[in-house]
């Protein structure tokens, strides 16, 4: 069984993989449907799962205090929202014959009341807020470098400037999380206790 610490290596790598596949998918002038669309979204979903696994450890290393707990559950709620968005993307890609059909189906889905704020506009932002809270807590405890929250914040803002910068953001996360995936096994809690109160 792999160490839970590998989440801090695997999650950014999968996010970076999504970013690269997204660029490849857009080389023909449109994104989806097709193998690159599907593979990229599966990478992203895998990355989200590993991030949530890592959030539990980050909370434990931060001392399981109130703010770390808020960070954990805020980040997890955002991860669920992002996962739903990407599952919608996958489903739309599977049932659509071409990019135009995808756009029509996306428009119908996003017109459903509550879908846009919950899974596209507001909900996913909670993932980044929770992650930043946890990283800041670990920086205060000197488990992460003082500049780690800055790199995580840059990673968060890069996709808003240009989504083609997602691989760069993933590289910043790898640098930020290096002390976590190098952390000695004796310093992390048992698997069953990472989400305990």
TrEMBL record:
Transmembrane segments: 7-24, 36-55, 67-88
Keywords: Membrane, Transmembrane, Transmembrane helix
Protein name: Uncharacterized protein
Organism of this sequence: Streptomyces endophytica
